[in-house]
Amino acid sequence: MDGFMDKGRVLFVDDETQVLRSLKRALRLHCKEWELFFFSSPVQALSELTELKPWVIVSDKKMSEMSGEDFLLQAKEIWPDSVRVILTGDTSQDSALVSLRSAHLLLPKPFELDELLSALKSAVCLRSFSLDANTRSELGGLQTLPVLPRVYQQLVSYLDAVEQPDNDHIAKLISSDVAVLTKVIQLANSSFFGFSQPVYDAKDVIVRLGHDLIKKMLLVTGLFNSVVNQNEAEKFFNTAISVAEKVRELAILAGQVGDDIERAYFCGLLHNLGCLVKEANNSLLSTDLVGAFILQLWGFETTVINAVRYQSMPESSPDAEKLVYQLCIAKTLVNEEKQNLTYSEVLASIDEGRVEKAGLIAYLRK
């Protein structure tokens, strides 16, 4: 066991021993930096969780001793500080929704090896976050975010009452609540449904998932709760929308198009995601860090995660993408709105290096 604590640990659970043997063969060459543990019994795996302290738990969904969902729900209680992955050959929508209550990531079975390796890479990235053990456990056990009761009720009532819902109207409602938007986009971008290209526009998400699945997410799964102060939440969401609109405008001014603009708007909406958790858990941690940790845990792409994580210190971002600088500047624009300053005046007051890296130097020098 020398070096055991220096390596990440992955725990695999499947009651088909042939599957476990195949996994061992497939991972042997790709996971030399990991300690791999294989269990054919979920009960035995649960009994060893606290000793093994895995970074990642991968479970088959259909097992005779207990279901993968039940196993992961119990694993979450025993050792929440793990990325939980469920493998299933059942690609029905209902199956996906049930699995979301226990797993961070859903993978179809059989899965591509790269998809599993991506989950392991995500676990390594999570270890780079300067968070204490208790906070990691709290965030690792988090499956829901507080929603605005007003928006939630409007969505549910509309989907219940209308036979042929209007996509534009649903998209508008979804986009006005960060918790709902984050969760539906997480599902829409999951490799579980076979999509390789991420989408961030609410209308594209609706087309991918369909009205029925979104309705089930709201009504059946218990993925959302409304333990949130209404007045504080309204301020939170208004700020999120203001920043989102500004960062989208900056992306357009920088000459970006299509998906880049939608991604910019989405990051603006999520820039204060950590505040939801901070308020819910009464934490004194950096909300940027908490928000980025959740996005990493839930499988969002690196560009989005880094934009949220480094929005207050863009120079610290390892990839120096335009988006993180645009998000930082968008927040300044929102804060300066009361001064009735033009974009050019605000940009002129910001460090020129930041303006240049945001792709806005040409606009400033017009």
Poorly predicted tracts of residues: 1-5
CATH topology annotation of the largest domain: Hypothetical protein af1432
Rg over alpha carbons: 21 Å
Give me the strand/helix succession: EHEHHEHEHEHHEHHHHHEHHHHHHHHH
Main beta sheet strand tally, sense and closure? 5 strands, parallel
CATH superfamily of the largest domain: Hypothetical protein af1432
Reading off the top of the CATH hierarchy, the class of the largest domain is best stated as Mainly Alpha
When the domains are counted, the total is: 2
- The chain-level mean pLDDT equals 85
Question: How many strands appear in the DSSP assignment?
Answer: 7
Q: What portion of residues belong to β-strands?
A: 5-15%
The secondary structure category is: alpha/beta
Percent helix, as a range, is 55-70%
CATH architecture of the largest domain: Orthogonal Bundle
Q: Could you say which overall geometry the principal axes of the C-alpha atoms support?
A: globular
Q: Helix count, per DSSP?
A: 21
Spatial gap, N to C terminus: 63 Å
Modified residues (4-aspartylphosphate): 60
Domain Response regulatory: 9-124
Domain HDOD: 145-327
Protein name: Response regulator
Description:
The strands form two sheets. A five-stranded parallel beta sheet has the order 2-1-3-4-5, with helices on both faces. Strands 6-7 form a two-stranded parallel sheet. It is globular and about 65 Å long. It folds into two domains: 4-127, 3-Layer(aba) Sandwich (Rossmann fold), CATH 3.40.50.2300; 151-366, Hypothetical protein af1432. With 366 residues, the chain is α/β, with parallel strands linked by helices. The chain has 21 helices and seven strands. Residues 1-5 have low confidence and may be disordered. Helix 17 (302-309) packs parallel to helix 18 (322-335).
